[in-house]
Amino acid sequence: MSVAKHFSRKYLREEVLPTPFCPGCFNGVVMNAMFKAMEELGIEDLRNFVFVSGIGCSSWIPNPLIRADSLHTLHGRAVAVATGVKLANPRLNVVVIGGDGDLVAIGGNHLLHAARRNMDLLVVMVNNMVYAMTRGQLAPTTPLGFRTATTPYGNFEPPINVAKLLINTNANYVARWCVSNFHKLKQSFKEALSEVSKGFRFIEVVAPCITYVVRYEGKTPGQKIKELREACVEVKSISEIDDVERRGKIAVGVFKKELKPGYVELYESYASRAREASQK
Amino acid sequence: MVRALLSGNEAVAEGALAAGCNFFAGYPITPSSEIMHYMARELPKRGGSFIQAEDELAAINMVIGASWAGARAMTATSGPGFSLMQEGLGYAIMTETPLVIVNVMRAGPATGQATKAAQGDLMQARWGRHGDQMIPVLAPSSPQEAYDLTIEAFAIAEELRTPVVVLSDEFIAHGREVVELREKVEIPSRRKPRDPSEPPFGSPDPRIAPPMPPLGEGYYVIVTGSTHNEYGYRDVHSFETHFRLVKRLVDKIRLNVDKLFRYEVLGDDDAEVAIVCFGSVSRSAKQALRMLRSRGVRAKLLRLVTLWPMNDEVVRRELRSAKTIVVPEMNLGQLIYDVQRLAREDSRIVAVNKVGGGIPIYPSEIVEAALGGSR
Amino acid sequence: MRSIAFLGRGGQGIVFAGEVIAETLFEQGLYVAQLQSYGAEVRGGSVLSYVVFDRDRVENPFIESFSLAIVLHEAGMRRWMKHLEGSDLVILDELVSAELRNAVKLPISRVCVEKGVLGRENVVAIGVIAASGVLDPSVVERVLSRKRGFEKNIEALKLGLELGRDVADRVAAVLRL
Ligand SMILES: Cc1ncc(C[n+]2csc(CCOP(=O)(O)OP(=O)(O)O)c2C)c(N)n1
Ligand SMILES: [Mg+2]
């Protein structure tokens, strides 16, 4: 009997499986949603893709797992490296995958400025609500009251709402989904890789750390998924976000979708102005 | 050949462009900014990319990304920015990423005297990264050399797949002198693997850099700053993989010392007095050498153009006859450690240390140190 | 090897003067090195700018005295007193109250006021040097034509050429290679 290969296999390096993640880790859901989107888009191989990540559990998603060029960079610097890659070879699809600590704490400045520039990158932030790799410290996304290794009496620092913050930049695309919204998450990947394939695209995936969040809470992955499903409320317009969050729920959805020219296009017209100016 | 009147910063930019630099990312900082301004003006119209980064962390990392995507990439900065770029440089070393970084030295630490020349970053240029590492450091002493050594830096970077530091200073950067520009500069492109089976991170001969697969050409290269085997797969546990990797990376530079080590010797072979120097101070030192010799002192000057790796043999040989060795530096004593290590045991080593205020070390101060007591 | 220095305070175009001299000598086929040094702050602080020139490459630009130094304001002097004392010739604007054995005074600033080229003391000073023949006035003009304020600068240059006539021999003696 022949078994059909799982759709994700063609995008993975078989030789490095199994993944390095904890059993039940939601990073697999993020990967699968992305791969499913790619498959549905008819992307056969990833030779025109470059994956860039920083340091953290989620930064291990692409490197070395994904069968593609990938750069596993310093903690926090993935967006900067990705910017260099994109500008030096604009033909490439550059995807950044990273953690909430990596992209928002130590690398927050790069994230903000890449969004300001509408840099032609897809940035996927796996929001697991903690620093997982370094054993569960406070992240800028950790909810209030949450106990972590560095907030043993409960977090008192209000968390940052990254997706909401990025709505107010030049980013072309901003979405947030939970791992419980597999289908919608996949749709967002599809949008960000085809329909809105230029400019800065940001997808936040709420994926609580299985070890330092879910297990701490005494829950199973299945229970957590169920809980997330109930907590997520899809908004149709950004004006609903605050209301949803006031009710203690997680607002998900596509918060922003525009087709403004990305940095590469703007730079090219700037460069042609430069050439004209120098001919005069 | 074209002759131009250029500042050291302009000469660096001209050198970079002559060497085929087509990517620059930087963050403004005195006294290096003119390099950035020049590239901002030139690169867009020549089909290259220029970007003003949000900080130096971004700048060096953008340069790394661009280099992997096939660009000849550089950045330029000064002390505070150089400090911020150290982690990125370490990553470039570990991933064997060719790039050129210019550090125009000013007086530090911290903001120090932002507009004043200094040479306090010698040790940082050599040792600024954590872990075991080695990268070439080249020190120009004039705008002409800033031009020539920037070209050289690109050639070394490409050949050895390494970051290369050009260590300039504010005097060179803002002083204008006559620079002879070359008609044409050919720098061989980095070698690509013959096929995906050729390892991009391993080499049987440590003196030869492995081939570098550019992104987007189907090599499916795995680049990581973590310890990795010759195909790029992470191995963060085994002794063998780590030791083999860092040893090869250090040997790549260390064992190429004959090729990398540039120096200048002037004066008497059997000198009693030797002056050892680098960078802009060498200019005063040369005049001091002439002054000493015109007074009948047998004297020589050893100027290090390559500050790292160090050719101990050459320095030892050149200092063999010297009873007095003067080491003028615009810092509180860094190059002197090499001299202390490599000079004859019975030699008298005299430091001339002066930094701040934009006041250079003058020839008379070097002469006085050579003839008189220690300061 | 010879050298020309300008000393003054920020805002007097001291660096500009160094640039013009360097470019002129360069276009006359010489090797030059042009450096500058600022005091505490650019506006109002002391500024020194100087050019070293030679038939061959300049060995050392970090010189300890000048062949010729022109002082346009006292602010520029104190820090460089040793340099000035050791220089071959110093030209002081007549408003500078210092006394130096190797100095002559010229009414550079007064000429600027009287002839309506206020703030061009730097270019008048260049004219004074050019009167010696060491700088070719037509090359100076060409260099100035590439810079801002050309017309006023040419006026100032002419005034300087005239003013420099009396000291032309002494200037030539210290600057001729
Ligand atoms: C400069 C630097 N500081 C600290 C670290 C240690 N470090 C590694 S991963 C990490 C946090 C990762 O958290 P996050 O980005 O949220 O990723 P996760 O593991 O949660 O997926 C830290 C602090 C580092 N590698 N580099
Ligand atoms: Mg995290």
Describe this entry's structure for a reader.
The complex is a heterotrimer of chains A (280), B (375) and C (177). Chain A is of the alpha/beta class and 280 residues long. Chain A has helices at residues 27-40, 78-88, 100-106, 108-116, 162-167, 182-195, 210-214, 221-231, 241-246, 263-279; strands spanning 49-53, 69-72, 93-99, 121-127, 130-131, 137-138, 173-178, 200-206, 232-234, 250-257. In chain A, the strands form two sheets. Chain A has an eight-stranded mixed β-sheet with strand order 2-1-3-4-8-7-10-9, sandwiched between helices. In chain A, strands 5-6 form a two-stranded antiparallel ribbon. Chain A is globular and about 70 Å long. Chain B has 375 residues and is α/β, with parallel strands linked by helices. Chain B folds into two domains: 2-181, Rossmann fold; 264-374, Rossmann fold. Chain B has helices at 8-18, 33-42, 56-68, 79-94, 122-127, 143-160, 170-174, 239-254, 257-260, 281-294, 312-318, 336-342, 363-371; strands at residues 2-7, 23-26, 49-52, 73-77, 99-107, 113-117, 137-138, 163-169, 176-181, 222-224, 263-267, 273-277, 299-304, 306-308, 324-329, 348-353. In chain B, strands 2, 3, 4, 5, 6, 7, 8 and 14 form an eight-stranded mixed β-sheet that branches. Chain C is an alpha/beta fold and 177 residues long. Chain C has a single domain (2-175), classed as 3-Layer(aba) Sandwich (Pyruvate-ferredoxin Oxidoreductase, domain 3), CATH 3.40.920. In chain C, strand 2 (31-38) and strand 3 form a beta hairpin. The longest helix of chain C is centred in the N-terminal third of the chain and has 14 residues, at 14-27. Chain C is globular and about 40 Å long. Classes of the chains: A alpha/beta (280), B alpha/beta (375), C alpha/beta (177). Chain A binds chain B through residues 16, 46-48, 50, 52, 63-64, 67-74, 76-77, 80-89, 91-92, 109-110, 112-113, 267, 270-271, 274-275, 277-278, and chain B through 22-23, 25, 44-45, 47, 49, 51, 53-55, 57-59, 61-71, 73, 87-88, 91, 95, 215-226, 232-234. Residues 56, 99-101, 128, 130-132, 139 of chain A line the site of magnesium ion (MG).
